[in-house]
Specification:
2 helices; alpha+beta; four-stranded mixed sheet; five-stranded mixed sheet
């Protein structure tokens, strides 16, 4: 076996809210969600993937176009995948988060975040392969970008140990 045919070592990356990550090598992306939503994209042909994590459904002001907003985060991740050589017809998504707990807020922003993600994916004709959404519990999501395996841990209370680096 030649050296070049060995798979690169998988690295770990913690995706903060309001960020997008498209790694250049196999990576385990983890994030923690409440009402926020994470969208993973995976290219079935290239065997690569990335993830966006947003807090709010949409923004209209051009001065505030950041990945904190779903309409920016999801579209930007799609554009990044295409710029990286993916054909949009090979992309598949998974959607996570959007919890709503009346203990913390009266507005169900999670539902609005999910609507934004689904609308954009439908407009771009990107299949949603699975969803783990809604409810009242927080989620810790771990996405292996090379194997397309995703693990979800649900927790009643998000603890500091749920955040990277894990303790």
């Amino acid at each position: 076996m030649s050296h070049s045919s060995k798979k690169p070592v998988t690295k770990d990356y913690y995706l903060k809210p309001g960020y997008i990550y498209l790694p250049d090598r196999p990576t385990t992306i983890s994030t923690v969600l409440g009402s926020s939503v994470a969208v993973s994209l995976y290219d079935r042909s290239k065997k690569t993937g990335g993830m966006s994590h947003f807090l709010f459904p949409y923004v209209e002001s051009r001065q505030k176009t950041t990945a904190q907003y779903g309409n920016i985060a999801v579209l930007t991740l799609i554009k990044m995948m295409i710029s990286n050589g993916s054909d949009i017809s090979n992309l598949e998504s998974q959607v996570f988060g959007g919890a709503f707990n009346q203990e913390y807020t009266k507005r169900d922003i999670g539902r609005d975040n999910l609507k934004t993600a689904r609308r954009i994916l439908a407009e771009k004709k990107i299949k949603i392969a699975s969803e783990d959404i809604g409810g009242e519990l927080g989620r810790k999501v771990v996405f292996n970008t090379s194997s397309y395996e995703i693990v979800i841990l649900k927790v009643d209370r998000l603890r500091s140990s749920d955040w990277y680096p894990y303790s």
